[in-house]
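Appendix B. Raw example, untouched.
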Amino acid sequence: MTVTIPATLVNLGLRGEPQQKRAKATFERILSATAELVQEVGIDRITTIEVARRAEANISTLYRYFPNKYALVKYLAQRLGERQNTAVNEYLAAADPHCPWEEVLDGVVDQLVAVSRREPAFVSLQRALMAVPELREEYRRSSDDVSEFLMERMRRWGIELPNARIHLIIKCMGECSATLLDLAVSGGRPYDDDVVEELKQVFKGYVRTYMPS
């Protein structure tokens, strides 16, 4: 399903961030309420009024930070995505440089799954981003945050390709992970270990085609 943002709502930027402790608490309640509602009813059915009600916040307070529900979803998904990217980058930075490349890729998948499991709304928000064309590119740009670390590893493994090509490979891996992590929780199931294992096989099989003979 594709959701089209009305032309009058294309402003997706954050209007401001809270400074005081009480305001920060309200801000976090708004984000939590958004995540809950995206999980429950989907991005097309949530409203800023319902988010404010669920968060026990004044609607004017919500609009102080976010111009519309799409900006809310974008901000929340970006923050969750940053946590996922940070986990992957920290893993890659700390991994033994002599570790077999297959194990490194398995570890990347494990990090993606671990963050998603800690953030129940992650997959729902990812779906919401992919459903809205104006938000989709924001989601895809998130793979750039892990490109440098993963590119460095690929160079060590002997993959000699232009930087642009490796960036594309990593972006494609991100697309695969989004789809298969979504499949792993389809039907309200917890993360299906068999699907996670298939994602590992996809990563390894894909990268293997670029490994030196």
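End of appendix B.
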